[in-house]
Amino acid sequence: MTTAADQNQFGRPATIDDVAKNAGVSTKTVSRVLNRAPNVKSTTRDRVEQAMQVLAYRPNSPARMLASNRTYLIGLIYNNTDSNYITNIQNGVLSACLPEHYDLLIHPCSYTNPSVLNDIREFISSKRVDGLVLVPPLSDVAGIHEFISQQGIANIAISREPVDDTDWTVCTNDREICKQMVRHLSRLGHQRIAFVRSHPDHTAMANRYLGYLDGMAEANLDIDERLIVQGENTFESGIDCGIQLLRLQPMPTAIFCANDHMAAGVMKVAHERKLDIPGDISIAGFDDEPLASQVWPHLTTVKQPLIEMAEIATKQLIRMVRDEKPKDLRIVVNAELVFRQSTGPAKHS
């Protein structure tokens, strides 16, 4: 087998014929390996993949498209935001696309726009992607799964519960992990635990609220409706919710927020009121965004394995594009509690 130095002798990008010669197989076999055909011996596949790596081979996209009637494009549709959440999702999708020789097209749009479905239809028709990865809150737009399926496009959603037996999703154990967070706070002696909700129409957010209720029930703590407030997933809405909660008498001893941005807003209000965190009030969030380690005190939160979720979702999607039905309709990737300095024992008067 030739080396990387031999590849330089070509004076041009390596071709499929070069790969076939290097691996000692036919070009048809190389094509089958590229298209992940099932009738290729593992030893042959390994030899071809090693040759592609040594020769830095990149498939000829137009040729592949003509041979397979595919574009080898995966579309990622998400709400137009600068959140680190989307960056992690993109990194996970890319890590799954690259070894399969797929390219990624990103398409930000506004899920609140009444014409969002038309926007997606235009993207599908103009770019001819083989499949779509959907990210919340767009993945929770009413009818979006049915709409995309009607377009004949394979799709998979992140952080959504399946709506039927054709709806493939990858999510976290939001309900269970939020129950565990409440359990942690109750074991620190907190009884008046508030919860800041967001987007009740977003499946994951709804599950987080249910997890809060489960945790309160497990700890035999009464639900005070005044301690449950509605946010909008933003820092600004966290400020509004913090003002509302911290003016209560008696005020909560702990506040659990459905995301980190709202938790940071609550922390701002607590600091302005000269409250000690966590001496006077404990605050927890969800997502483990970079800001969770940038605010002070550092924020106790829930870490979502977003890169892993996106990678798994994309691998499942590529199988669907190849008409390989994934084994599981719903794949759950467990989140984990991250304990930092913003939570501590409850203050008792």
What does this structure look like?
This protein is α/β, with parallel strands linked by helices and 349 residues long. It has 3 domains: 64 residues, lambda repressor-like DNA-binding domains (434 Repressor (Amino-terminal Domain), Orthogonal Bundle); 131 residues, Rossmann fold, CATH 3.40.50; 131 residues, Response regulator (Rossmann fold). The protein is built from 13 helices and 12 strands. A 6-stranded parallel sheet has the order 2-1-3-4-5-11, with helices on both faces. A 4-stranded parallel sheet has the order 7-6-8-9, with helices on both faces. α9 runs parallel beside α10 and α11 packs across α12. The longest helix has 16 residues.
The percentage helix is 40-55%
In the residues, how many domains can be counted?
3
The largest pleated sheet is described as: 6 strands, parallel
CATH topology of the largest domain: Rossmann fold
Kindly report the name of the CATH homologous superfamily of the largest domain: Response regulator
- What top-tier CATH class of the largest domain fits best? Alpha Beta
Overall, the morphology is elongated
Compressed to H and E, one letter per element, the order equals HHHHHEHEHEHEEHEHEHEHEEHEE
Helix count from the secondary structure assignment: 13
Mean pLDDT: 88
Uncertain segments are 1-9
Cα-based radius of gyration, to the nearest Å: 25 Å
SS elements, strand count? 12
Identify the notable features of this structure and list them briefly.
6-stranded parallel sheet; elongated; Rossmann fold; 434 Repressor (Amino-terminal Domain); disordered N terminus; 42% helix; 349 residues; 3 domains; alpha/beta; 4-stranded parallel sheet
